[in-house]
Amino acid sequence: MTSFGDRFLGLALFVLAVSYGWVAQQWPPPFGGHEAVGPETFPTILAFILAGSSLYLMFKPDPDAHWPMGRTAAELVGAMAILVLYAFVLETLGFVIATTLAVGTLCWRMGAKPRASFLVGVISAVSVFLLFNNLLELSLPGGLLEFD
């Protein structure tokens, strides 16, 4: 595929970034008013990063773009499927379990040994959960680990 493919992908990602950023701004304020870091902050940051990256793809495409075929393309489609599945099970399973499974599976598919992959997944999930819930006071779903 030529640089046209990069431009097309950049345009699609830019539309996604704008849509994602707009939806994040529509979330209602938390009970009791606005917090210092509201629930829309993190998605807005992601939207800006994605928008900037997509603009770079559109205006400075790779002249020697070779899109993956065969097994590499299948691995990329598999990674996308894992991320979509992660979004669907996040609320039900909870952040720690869903993130452990997603990060562990992605690390394993990138070539790491299964035990090390899922250890990285557990450490990542627990670290981010503690950071968001305790330091940033942004609650992540507990899912199966809720003790209410």
Task: Tell me the layout of helices and strands.
Elements: H1 3-25, H2 41-59, H3 71-93, H4 95-109, H5 114-135
Helix pairs in contact: 1-2, 3-4, 4-5
What is this structure, in a nutshell?
It contains 5 helices and no strands.
Q: Could you walk me through the main structural features you see in this protein, from its secondary elements to its overall organization?
A:
The chain has 148 residues and is mainly α. It is 69% helix and 0% strand. The chain is built from five helices and no strands. Helix 3 runs antiparallel to helix 4. It is flat and about 55 Å long. The N and C termini lie far apart (53 Å). The relative contact order is 0.11. The mean pLDDT is 81.
Mean pLDDT, rounded to whole units? 81
Shape: flat
Q: How would you characterize the largest beta sheet?
A: none
Quaternary: single chain
N-to-C span:
53 Å
Q: What is the alpha-carbon Rg in Å?
A: 18 Å
- Structural class comes to mainly alpha
The tally of beta strands, per DSSP, is: 0
In percent terms, what proportion of residues is strand? under 5%
Secondary-structure element order, N to C: HHHHH
Low-confidence stretches: none
